[in-house]
Structure formats: C-alpha cells, structure tokens
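Long-time lurker. I teach an intro course on protein structure, and each term I like to show students one example going from raw sequence to a predicted 3D structure in token notation. This year I'd like something fresh instead of my usual example. Would anyone be willing to generate the tokens for the chain below so I can use it in lecture? Attribution to the forum is fine with me.
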Amino acid sequence: LFLLFFTTHEELQTLDVDDAFFSTPEDIAARALKPEGGVKFIRTFQKQAEDQAINLPPNLDQLVKNATYTQSPDHLVWKFFYDLRGSAEYPFPGGIFQWARYRKNGTGLNENQKIFSESLNKHENTLTLATLRIFSNSLGQPHFHFNANEMGYVVSGCGQVGVTLSTVTSNFNIGIGDVIFFPVGTQHYIQSVCEEDLLLVLAYSTGNQLETLRMNQYFHGTADHILAQLFFKEQAEFKKFPKPAK
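-- Reply from a regular --
Happy to contribute to a lecture. Here you go:
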C-alpha cells in the first residue's frame, strides 16, 4: 500500500506502457522494436479487458520467471530514496516532525540526507514530505507557509482543523483516511482531540527550503507599541507573552 502525491494542479495525465503500445500502429511498433517475427509477432499481443496498471494477471507465476535486478550504487539510489521513518525527529511543543526536505545549510546531514536534499532542489516541481505526530489533546499552533501549498493525509487518530481566510476561520473535524489541503499563505492549525496521537503524512509543493511563520513568531516579532495600537491594550501587557523557543 502506497500513499502517493503528485505535483500538479491539473487533472493527472498518465500513459501506461501497454496503452502506448496498443495505440501504436502494428507496422510502426514492429519497425521500432524489431522483434523476431516482425509484425506477425506484434499481432500476437492482445489488449486486456482490465487496466493492467491496477490488475495483475491471474497466471502471473507462469508469465514471470525472473524478477531480479542488479542493485544500483548507493549514491544513485539516494537521489530517489529516503528513509523517512528512520530519520531525525524534530520535536515541538505538542508533537514531533520528521522531514524529507531540502535544506540550504547541510551541516550535520549524513551523506544520504545531503544527496537526497540536493536532488530535491535540482527539480523545479518537487515535494517536501513530512510526518506530523500531534500528541493527544495537543496543538499544532496557527501558522502559514510562504512558498508552498500543503496537503495532508490522516494515518491515525482524529483532530480538528482551523483555516483562517481574511477575518473568517473555518473549522472542521478530520479522521483516518481524510485528506486536507492548505493553499500557500493560508493560516491554519491542527489539534488532536482523541486519546491517541494524531498522525499525518504531509506534502509541500516546493523543492526549496520550506518557509513557515508561526503565530507566536509573528506576534512576538511585532513591536509592543504597534500591538498596543492594534488591540487597544497597554504596551506593558504584551510582556506577558513569552518569547517563542528557537
């Protein structure tokens, strides 16, 4: 079972090998592939009633005799493969992140992480992927991303999501199997409301380092005298908000 994310906002277009083959005139396929028997051999292929991208033949063991392949060198594999579950954990108040992402500063990354990170940044349309675990009854505070749309899939647990658009906030519940989406620049929060942890797989549409601004960061980053004017409160009152942890 795979969970797949694709970097497109259009309807996904896919062309399978068998569809491409059967859409090609027999004489053209014979000239391109040059099989023994020529066109006669090409004509022995019959299009199946079911899409073979989804359904495997019932006699697969008779058709496939050898499915072994030479293992690619590690440095090549690492451009395409990353052990997210075994990667470093990044705790925050209320939960844990694990990242498969591009990082401008590669200090402290192992060779695998550096190669994968650089591979992401070389491609214009790619993804940063993460797992987000929010502990029971904890909160992933309001925040937004400057340079990415965000999509998430709920693996376990249940929660509540809030999306802020201008001065209006929309709240809704999420559970196992649900998908959520936050357009770039949209403030949102996620909280766990079950006894078990809320676990999500998140994808961000960017190959660059993800840029995020959290509520406690922009609130504390605004001068006290400006906040006093905005909220009609004495300037000293805003000293009550603690500085966000780095």
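Some talking points for your students: The mean pLDDT is 93. The two ends are 37 Å apart (CA to CA).
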